[in-house]
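BUG: 3D viewer hangs when loading the predicted structure for this chain

Environment: internal workstation, default settings.
Expected: structure renders.
Actual: progress bar stalls at 90%.

Input used:
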Amino acid sequence: MAKLVLRDCSIVVNSVDFSDHVSSVEITLVKDEIETTNFSGQGRERVAGLKDDSIVVSFQQDFAAGEVDATLYPLWNNETEFTVVVKPTAAAVSATNPSYTATCILLEYQPLSGDVGDLSETEVTFPTQRTGVTRATA
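Structure tokens produced before the viewer hung:
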């Protein structure tokens, strides 16, 4: 079985490819835990509730036109919903390179962060809306 070393992930936010400005990405798939325990059992019972997925991206900040801040600030400021698409590699979507897509909203944005001499990075959490993250293989 092949192992994957992340070298060329594809990260697209609001149709802008940020693959060359991202140092880490994390997709978290979560469903609320709804307890349904009753008197007929010997232990707790649960069912899955609503999705609460998120995508966390560490961007290497760039204030040039069409880059990180020029894309993210308006999304935060205008409270606009947008699409985020993440793939393990930049290759075409396939069974071995699935795409993870979500409609998101940006509720918190830290445009500038870092110490003297550091690379300015900003970690952004994209909470998903309604359907959460969907996975495609074709």
